[in-house]
Amino acid sequence: MPTVQERIYIFDTTLRDGEQSPGCSMNLEEKLRMARQLEQLRVDVIEAGFPIASVGDFEAVQAIAKMVEHGTVAALSRAVKTDIDRAWEAVRHARKPRIHTFIATSDIHLVHKLKKTRQQVLSEAVWAVEYAKTLCNDVEFSCEDSSRSDIDFLCEIVEATIVAGATVINLPDTVGYSVPEEYGAMFRTIKERVSNINKVTLSAHCHNDLGLAVANSLAALHNGARQVECTINGIGERAGNAALEEIVMAIKTRQEKLGFITNVNGEEIYKSSKLLSSLTGMMVQRNKAIVGANAFAHEAGIHQDGVLKSTITYEIMTPQSVGIKHSMLVLGKHSGRHALKQRYSELGYVLSSEDLERAYKSFCALADQKKEIFDEDLVAILEDREDNSVDLYHLQNIYVSSGTNIRPTATIELKQGEQVLIDSATGDGPVDAAYKAIERITGVAGKLTEYSIKSVSLGHDAIGEVFVRVDFDGVLFNGRAVSTDVITGSVKAYLEALNRALTAKKRKGEQQKEEVKDAAVAV
Ligand code: KIV
Ligand code: ZN
User: Which helix (H) or strand (E) holds 381?
Assistant: First the structure.
């Protein structure tokens, strides 16, 4: 049984590896909200993005770097000067900045993707780390596709990049191919054969293609890794990355066996998971470990009986330890601002007076429609923000007629700045009719690729949460809204996606103008 408790550093890459996967994109404000929550969660490193990838990524990394107070903020770059410069420009204002640079090391990648020799890759990696080190003291180097790399070459490149100044060496299982024994053995060999390995922190980064990401990460920790890279809800490329909540709770729940500790505040896990789902629309499956709706639900009679007699019979950790508060009937129509503020603070939300006022207004409107207001409703109210920019579309009114034997018709009234715009359309159903009316008003056609609706709390009058993903000109935009009326919620969610598409288009236009201006200056 381990006696010493070794500290494991949690490197969160939700905003980089997670965000770059399809359907998980977030805008600047959403990334900042997520980063704020990751700070509350007390992760050690926030990988905020890949600044060279786009202006949006660059700006998000920069804003997060300026905002984060405690943890390290990392920016990803390939092992080339332009990327490293851009990454540094984005993180340089962080209190604790890190440049994370990488190059592939497996022959499969060298031959088929990079078309480079091992010698070339080695010298580019060393050059990149040396160069990054001239800018930033904390440099992480990743050998992409480590788990399929030749072990002798891996030892050589790791040793050389440590000499070049790397502070962290990351050995990813990029394609989720490894099995735990094998991934652990790679770390063990690196520890045994690389003479300067004790100068750096070794890091694990696992993808979940075979469902082994968490098991592989734990195997790496068992064999000397002390940083683990992971994402909230396990989002990420393809089948995702190792789930942060699973790693952290495995370490916590099996402390006596594993002998590790982290600095993560477990009670912020559930809130982080919920926030991410609501920002991206990427819901977690009901039976997902730790944060799924069934994770703490005991259905079978024999289990319920056991848990009622003593929770230790079937519960290996408490819902409270991950921040799940029991849904309680808390407030009603006559509750005042003070009670609302108090309940929010019990749920872990500290509201500014402006936010409280806004929440109180929505709360009163909801209390008129719904007798019982649950904690989930209060959280939904907070997450339902509208961007009030003048050139965006806002819903004013909606009239729908629908039934078994009539063709559904919707009349929609939108506001754009001071203009009120109104039109009607028919459709296959009331939502289809409403979306067609919006298309007639705005002149913007979108193709709905995903639509889901779920109840956020209990009762037939519960708030419905609508999530949509819409394809505008080949680019996907998410929208989310909550309402006790499913048609209103559906329209608001669609408008959110549409407004995002319009904002992105406007930004792109501005960016192109800037580029033309820069090109003219250069000439
Ligand atoms: O999976 C991977 O190899 C990565 C690296 C860029 C760290 O995400
Ligand atoms: Zn990855």
Answer: helix 375-383
Tell me the CATH number of domain 4-280, given options 3.30.420.40, 1.10.10.10, 3.20.20.70, 3.90.960.10: 3.20.20.70
27 lines ligand 1 (CB under 6 A): no
d(CA 172, ligand 1 centre) in Å? 6
Domain ranges of the chain: 4-280, 298-382, 394-509
Cα(109) to ligand 2 centroid in Å equals: 15
Distance (Å) from CA 12 to ligand 2 centroid = 11
Confidence of residue 297 (pLDDT cuts 50, 70, 90): confident
Farthest CA pair distance, the chain? 79
Please say whether the structural domain 298-382 has been given the CATH code 1.10.238. Answer: yes
Q: Which atom of ligand 1 is nearest to the CA of 17?
A: 8
Indicate which residue's Cα is closest to atom 5 of ligand 1.
144
**pTM across the whole model:** 0.83
Q: Which ligand 1 atom is at minimum distance from the Cα of 76?
A: 6
Across 30-96, the runs of DSSP E, i.e. the strands, are 45-49, 72-78
d(CA 158, CA 177) in angstroms, rounded, equals 21
Domain 394-509, second-level architecture = 2-Layer Sandwich (3.30)
Q: How far is the CA of 279 from the centre of ligand 1 (A)?
A: 23
The pLDDT tens digits of the residues spanning 113-125 come to 999 999 999 999 9
Please give the radius of gyration of the chain, using alpha carbons only, rounded to the nearest integer. 25
Least confident span in 149-163, 173-187, 196-210, 308-322: 308-322
Q: Per residue in 324-373, pLDDT tens?
A: 876 555 677 777 888 888 888 877 788 889 889 989 988 888 888 777 77
